Task: inverse folding
């Protein structure tokens, strides 16, 4: 009898697609019930979105002004209480979930399974270690609640259900700490598709050469309707903001098309794109490691090739 | 102010990991071991806080077998005042590591604990958050900037949406992201100096920490390989290939 609580990730009043991916992982457990928990100061619209996800039994909401920002110190005690009666608590393995889930696990006195790639059985999971260079099979103790983070890139988002699941407000009586406070979120505003969920991503690396030169990547991405990403080298060099970083310590993504332009392909970067459908590499160095994992490779100068690509697309 | 720093020894990040053919683990015999890169960043940040006069003492903590002392000496050579070695032959899981740190906190009463956001061997990304929960104190994970003033830490965190700034009253746990700082290199005279710095050894068993692990690793496998790709000769050929796959 598995009963799974999935913690919804949201920002700016919108549900993040990582939530529907975590629901897919919950469905793979063949759970008897999958409930989604929305913690927010204003959960209604988010809950309505979550209720449409296929496979969801109920959406639970905790509306509190304390929940206006996703602070782990504030959310974790509420989640730990709400987890009573559930066999599993699933949280997306994004910076949101990675911050919160271990705090929940420790409050419950249980271990956490990080970055679940596949569900082998209700308490048996596969997850990557060593930057994805080894995959381990992990068995969790069946007598305890399983707290797990779900590796978004390994799971397709669950689709829409024919009818919406019921939404219920949850009253959780717990005193929340005030020792940790949200100050601000600095976000690059962009009309481009979201890097984490985009079906196409164009990434630039050190080979792009400068912040100004990165315009050619943005322009090309806009041309094909892609999100923009970058290697760690490009972020460290200040070409683009850190939220565009793809790789082991940045975002791990699985778009249908990934184009790595001027990226040599350090192992840490490759970890972030292994699950992409088609990987295209454009690099002037034919020996670059990126070509070892690319499906289609093209050796040459990116500043010459990108305009040619734009022309060829027509 | 005292700062406790987690200092884990892991397989060096340049090593290409090989899974043993029988699936019982990864090959670690004869493989180069180094400090977890995120822990080097944690130690560097603590040292800078001491150099700024914010902190007075930096203590590196390692959990592991008897030969871990050589690794802790590196932390001392980098600049830590002293080291604590929790001696155990067994690998510890994050919850157990967090419980160990909590015991050391009770003893040392630090104002700040800085840990790497994850170790590059198990990639768990849990210990700091678990420790903060058990300690019932703030956590500021994935830090790319730390300012300490007036009994609180103002921390910039690298999150998926951008950069988040939070304020945490001390004592608190901070976990480091890559861009927090660039760790210094160890100089030869510092290695000599480190020899006289104290390493306090504590038997794991004497801490009274529950060591029951809830997770059991039953199999190790190499990741699925992507099949070998093709090289195209020009932009037109690339576009044609992508159009054929329905990607453009």
Result:
């Amino acid at each position: 009898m598995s009963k799974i609580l999935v913690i919804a990730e949201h920002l700016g009043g919108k549900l993040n697609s990582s939530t529907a991916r975590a629901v897919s992982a919950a469905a793979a457990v063949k759970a008897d019930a999958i409930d989604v928990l929305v913690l927010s100061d204003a959960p209604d619209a988010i809950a309505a979105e979550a209720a449409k996800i296929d496979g969801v039994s109920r959406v639970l909401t905790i509306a509190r002004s304390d929940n206006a920002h996703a602070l782990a110190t504030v959310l974790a005690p509420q989640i730990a209480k709400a987890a009573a009666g559930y066999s599993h608590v699933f949280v997306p393995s994004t910076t949101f979930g990675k911050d919160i889930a271990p705090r929940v696990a420790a409050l419950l006195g249980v271990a956490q399974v990080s970055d679940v790639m596949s569900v082998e059985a209700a308490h048996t999971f596969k997850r990557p270690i060593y930057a994805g260079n080894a995959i381990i099979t992990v068995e969790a103790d069946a007598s305890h609640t399983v707290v797990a983070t779900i590796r978004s890139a390994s799971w397709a988002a669950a689709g829409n259900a024919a009818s919406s699941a019921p939404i219920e407000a949850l009253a959780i009586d717990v005193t929340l700490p005030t020792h940790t406070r949200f100050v601000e979120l600095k976000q690059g505003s962009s009309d481009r598709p979201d890097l984490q969920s985009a079906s196409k991503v164009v990434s630039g690396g050190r080979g792009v050469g400068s912040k100004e030169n990165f315009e050619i990547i943005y322009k090309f991405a806009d041309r094909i309707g892609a999100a923009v990403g970058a290697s760690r080298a490009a972020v460290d060099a200040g070409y683009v903001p850190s939220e565009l970083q793809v790789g082991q310590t940045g975002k791990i993504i699985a778009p249908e098309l990934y184009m790595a332009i001027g990226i040599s392909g350090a192992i840490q970067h490759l970890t972030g794109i292994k699950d992409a459908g088609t990987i295209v590499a454009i690099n002037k160095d034919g020996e670059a490691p990126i070509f070892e994992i690319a499906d289609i490779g093209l050796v040459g100068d990116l500043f010459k090739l990108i305009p040619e690509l734009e022309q060829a697309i027509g | 102010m005292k700062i406790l720093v987690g200092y884990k020894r892991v397989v060096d990040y340049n090593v290409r990991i090989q899974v043993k053919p029988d699936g019982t683990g990864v090959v670690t015999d004869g493989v180069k071991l180094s400090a977890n890169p995120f822990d080097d960043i944690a130690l560097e940040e603590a040292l800078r806080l001491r150099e700024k006069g914010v902190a007075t003492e930096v203590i590196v903590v390692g959990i592991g077998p008897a030969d871990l002392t050589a690794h802790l000496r590196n932390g001392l050579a980098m600049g830590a005042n002293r080291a604590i070695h929790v001696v155990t032959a067994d690998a510890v899981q994050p919850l157990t590591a967090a419980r160990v740190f909590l015991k050391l906190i009770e003893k040392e009463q630090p104002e700040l604990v800085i840990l790497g956001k994850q170790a590059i061997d198990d990639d768990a990304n849990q210990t700091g958050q678990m420790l903060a929960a058990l300690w019932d104190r703030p956590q500021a994970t994935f830090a790319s900037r730390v300012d300490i003033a007036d009994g609180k830490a103002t921390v910039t965190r690298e999150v998926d949406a951008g950069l988040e700034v939070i304020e945490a009253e001390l004592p608190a746990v901070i976990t480091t992201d890559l861009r927090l700082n660039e760790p210094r290199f160890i100089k030869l005279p510092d290695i000599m100096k480190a020899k006289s710095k104290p390493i306090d050894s504590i038997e794991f068993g004497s801490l009274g920490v529950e060591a029951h692990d809830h997770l059991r690793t039953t199999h190790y496998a190499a990741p699925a390989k992507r099949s070998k790709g093709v090289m195209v000769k020009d932009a037109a050929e690339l576009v044609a290939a992508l159009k054929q796959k329905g990607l453009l």
User: Anything to note?
Assistant: Chain B has a mean pLDDT of 96.
